[in-house]
Amino acid sequence: MNRKKLLTLTVLVSAGALFAVPETISAAQSTTSPAGQEKNLSSADLSKLNRKLLDKFASSLVDIEYFFRPDENADRTEVAVGYACPACNRMHNENPETILADQRPFRVPGYALSSTEFLSSDITAMPDWVKSIDVVFNGKRYPAAIAAYYPEHRSVKIRTKQPVEGIVPLTFQKEGKGKKFAFFRVEEGGTRISSVRPYSNTGIVRNLASGKEYVNTSPNSLIVNEKGDLLGLSMKSNQPLGAERNLNPLTWKPLPAAEFEKRLSEFNAMLKQNVYPVRLRLKPVKQASGTLRYRRGKTRNEVDAFGIKLNNGHVLVAANLTPAETARLSGILITVNGKTVPARFEGTLRNFGALTAIPEKPLPGKGIRIYDGPLAKEFGSDVYIVQLKSFGKNLDMDVLTDEIRVLLTGFRGFQVPPFTSRSNMLVFKTDGELLSLLLERRRIRQAGGIKYPVSADLLREQMKDFDLSNVPRKGDEQIAWLGIEFQQMDPALARAKNAAELTADGKYGLLILSVYPDSPAAKLGLKDGDILISITPEGAVKPERLQGNLFRANRLDRFPWARYDEIPQQYYNEIPTPWGSTRNDFNEMLGRIGLGTKVRLGVVRNGAFQDYNLTISAAPPSFDTTEKFTDEQLGLSVCDLTYEVRNYFQMATPEGGILVAKVRPGGRAAVAGIKPYELIISVNGKAVSNLKEFKELIAGQKELRLGVRRLAVTRIVTVKLDNSK
Known about the structure:
single chain; 725 residues; mainly beta; seven-stranded antiparallel β-sheet; six-stranded antiparallel beta barrel; 44 strands; 13% helix; elongated; disordered N terminus
């Protein structure tokens, strides 16, 4: 099997499954040492040595089986448990929740130090996860518990309640002549195997960030010489230079289980003092009747998140608000010891879903310091990994220990731990400094809830450069817009517009059907028939191509005016508007980019590509957002004429009137024959220009003669009122 090259830093790696199968014996397939040394023994000699060592140590090797318990929510953390496999030199990781569902234990190799004490890998399972531990030998089970930890060797000492019958404790030699070999017995690929391979500790890796040097070693292996003398145990795949010389576990410095749990308890207490539930309140979105094409489920008025008190007293809130939602932000409420502490908005991170806030009064706890430096310096260090779940005003935090082994190159070249998740994860140094956390990336298109690791140095950089255009805004809701009606492209349209190549035969692009007067699109000079092909926010490294099937058409080809009188009253509030909604997919994308942000639009016109520069601005009041007035006696809601309504009815600016926004089935207006989306242009013979005049003209009247216009046809509708109310 190929030996995995040593990288710079890691927390989690790929998983492998373990199964209970008959035991077989295999010799190493290669006679080359892990560090690339010259050949030692032949394959035949290695096979003989493998059998010899298996016979010698069979009575000293056991299986350690961990049985897990579910937490109070009947599940377990997403973080895997595992151990380093000497056969594939990878981590054999599994999720405790999967193990629980399969009703089985998690098995790791164990090595007898005495009849009651056994050494095995630290699988990073916290004490409260574990229901029980068994040492298995010769088919018998012996209840056990963790007695001590060896953090430097990623190992634990397991102690049984009674001696294990027939066990032969390992005997370690102080010195051994001859070449060294690594011998192991493990489950790999669903098969239990034993193997031996030349052992070398001369593969030196120097971490240039920290200056520390490490040695490539074989994990979970007995280190022996050719005679079979046991020289030590190597439990990790790499160790600090010099540590590989001390392989006798009897000389390792233990951390008693009680001390480990005390440190863990102190860290948990620190978390509870500095990590809080946070609720963000947003101004409600005005949901107009008939705008069914807008997905109502996408509107949030409250967002639950968590906040980290920093050592400057400010709170970092991990909440993936879109710029449009940030504009609606009306309150930040931090729950501390069951009490609510308001906070004021400070700034949003430019590239990730998080913001910072300043509490109105000091919060308890000393605050958490963000690590100052590149993560590569912490290679080989022990860390606490925290998985955090937010349940309204409560937080559920699972903590486990691990070691940093690999770093990946992430956003803008910053090194990050190699894990992503839909949950919240934070990585701390054991002294409490924050090394990394997961945040959602801010994208033009929705990211689907995937969170990405953000290192401390990247977080510090982001907090020095807040997105000044992405702030809460006063007044009514503002919707970003371009001012166009559009439809998706298709192959036939692409060819007809001489744009098949530029649109990938109609896969990309939005065909502009109309441009609103005085809109940003009109001011740019965009025209009917142009094709929007891409958008590039300022600072982006590449354009975002507009894939047509992600944008629903923003206008109806036909509206059933000719058969409007046939529609039953019970369906009045389900009739879609005959004009396009300002809350369309394209404007929503502009809102995610943010008001005030500069973008570059890629447009195809007459088969040629050209760029247009645009600063995203807010739309004027629209049917979706304008004030609605409801008269209960009439049983209808009305509003002023907005830009898209005037455009649809082809009304000149001086023309007045109000729009019927909603009609209550069975109400006086409905019985009189008034329907949604008609215009009221007069009341009792007097022209009405706006909502204010309408309110004044109907006040105190016993009977209303309303001038109602539908398209080009006007009629008078009489409605009698009960003025006693």
